[in-house]
Here is the input.
Amino acid sequence: MKGKIILKPLLFISFLVACLMLNAQGFISKTIQHDGLTREYSIYVPASYDGNTNFPLLFNLHGGGGNIASHIGIADMSPIADTANFIVVYPQARPDPSDGNSFNWINKVPGTFDDVPFFSSLIDTIASNYQIDQNRIYACGYSLGGDMSFELACKLTSRIAAISPVARTMQANPNSFCSPVHPTGVLTILGSNDFTSPYNGITFGGIEYYLSAAATHRYWATHNNCDTTATMISVSPSVERYTWSTASGCIYVEELKVIGGGHDWPGSFGDMTIDASSEIWQFVSRYDINGLIECSTSSITKDNNIKKKFRVYPNPVKDAINISVGSEFIGNRYAITSISGQKISEGKIEKEESVVNIQDLSEGIYFMQLDENIHKSFKIIKE
Here is the structure.
């Protein structure tokens, strides 16, 4: 049954991608020997990498039956890596003998093959050639690649800090195979009218194969000690953002629900009011292996104290951000960054009540980052 819900690549997309790859710059094709197979992967290392600084690592996984080239064509994150300073890797799935040797991360029929050890070996191989931050390794993926990112969060939990599955809910009965040992950031990007990976899950012949979106988020919210009731804001007329937070306000689970959306990678095809690639990076980059960085680097008491004495409002905002602080925060610096991590503006907090003009910014999501002595960021929605 699982094999029947994998989207095959469309011919026109494959043709387009082949043309794009002829001109691709900066991607390095490599191979690794694992379990008797020669496995391929493509790695992008931004120009800012100098070998002296540990860079985060993000795996971006193609869908069932897809390949590296086709996935880069729809989910090229190299421009984001250039500004946000991380390494992105596109691995190739192995041939599935149960499906005419098409490239699948998970067998379409029950089998013993497990690709999780491959990723562990791949991390070791990449770490032997590049300086990577072992505490900030992430995975995202489309369709069956999203399925595999759930697998990594469940079974390679000692190495994966956060994931973002696109167009995929989680396999049923997660308690039978999923054993995460640390707080894990999870962002899903799902279409409510996805007929390939249905939003309400898959049950066939009385057997549940995939959880509903609601059950998927409830599982991860519970694991991360979040309130199982989400808050929601409208990102656009077609996209709703749901967030699940801990009692201290630390967000660990988010969903971008595309109303009427299908089996898509928003921003590339399907809904164009959000960009899935940018959303993924701005989410996962906030986590390390210990959890949400801004929460794990400060005590709950300190975090609550900041919330009481530091306000950024209104949100959403049109023209100007009001900053209200306690006197002890005067003199601290702030920076406003784009969703991809690019610094837009910066300044110093000079008084307890300040106004920052952002009327020239385009509509979208931004972050106000407080200096390293505070370890706090605020998401800003510019209307």
